[in-house]
Amino acid sequence: MGERRKIVLAYSGGLDTSVAIHWLRERYDAEVATLTIDLGANAELDEARERALAIGAVRADVYDAREEFIRDYVWPALQAGALYEGVYPLATALGRPLIAKHLVRIAREEGAFAIAHGCTGKGNDQVRFDVSAAALAPELKVLAPAREWGMGRDQEIVYARERDIPLKLSGASAYSVDENLWGRSVEAGDLEDPWKEPPEAAYEWTASAANAPDEPRYVEVGFEEGVPVSLDGEQVGALELVQQMHEAAGAHGVGRIDHIENRLVGIKSREVYEAPAAAALSAAHRALEGMVLTKDQARFKERMAMEYADLVYNGLWFSAHRLDLDAYVRSTQQFVTGTVRLRLHKGSATAVGRRSDAALYRHDLATYDEGDAFDHRASEGFISIYGLPVRTQARIQGKGVEGA
Ligand code: ARG
């Protein structure tokens, strides 16, 4: 066709991906289209679009995927209770497959031979992009300039200056930051010393507990089948709900996480996160599950949660395994409908009240007061059988059971 080959690049507007537009054009003698996905980070997206075109992109899309992100990625992870290594709500890890999906969409529209991203060769994000693309479009190549070019930040700046690439250099931030609606990840700089307490400058979304208001704030979160749908009795859309919870919880210092994390590529890294909405909504969701799931369901789901978190973290969002787990999780959420009252105070989000029409908590069974419907005498027979193996062992093997 005589047309030049095309590459679709995930473009953040920052240094790496700005340099990448130029580098890919030269290296592959190709045209570069950029895609900037809005996942709720407060970057200036129109400015990024202008910059991409100025650097020589033939097409520069900005796409608002915030609703889709919450609905199709964040809610399923919340329902699953997925926290990587028990603490990280997976904001970045959930965003990558969504971005990959839209890169593939544009690549197909453009007949591109490759998609590209700005990830380095050291992190998890490259794996998430590459493996997601492999699942969705095995015919597409995935290019990662920053994995190949061997330039550090200063060399990239020189490269850009020599080629008149317009840059917007954020006053050399001490950290490497990735943000979206569900959380903010902060790494590098002085955080690389795991002994050092993260300085206040690492945090932007949350108040320190010390500076948070002395008065607690109470919020009622309403759920329908495991999805948050209302705040303080008002139905709100998904996006607004996350944003409102972000503000409320962040102001009370909720959602700071300091984690030594096991990356997929084998290294441990010190990661600091701020995820006020995720922390608060996770606490509320868990509290409601406590009311409606049986003990067996809750125990088993806990194991699934870890599996789900590992899978998301490890870049396997687009996999049959994830769909299988989703089917299980969805089934568990059938009765996760009700309301939780959270107390946000000095760095913690605590469920202090919960109610549901489907609650398995029954006052008449639980009460020590009048109206007790529990059959106390039945316990005797129950314990007799339950304790049978213990009595048998004690009788036959004697002191063997006491240890010491
Ligand atoms: N460690 C987190 C993860 O693997 C956050 C990564 C943030 N990415 C970044 N490019 N700064 O999901």
Walk me through this protein's architecture.
The structure is a single chain. The protein is an alpha/beta fold and 404 residues long. The protein contains 14 helices and 14 strands. It has three domains: 158 residues, Rossmann fold (3-Layer(aba) Sandwich); 139 residues, Argininosuccinate synthetase, chain A, domain 2, CATH 3.90.1260.10; 39 residues, Single alpha-helices involved in coiled-coils or other helix-helix interfaces, CATH 1.20.5. It is 43% helix and 20% strand. The strands form three sheets. A five-stranded parallel beta sheet has the order 3-2-1-4-5, with helices on both faces. Strands 10-9-8-13-14 form a five-stranded antiparallel beta sheet. The termini are far apart. The site of arginine has 11 residues, from helix 4, strand 6 and strand 7.
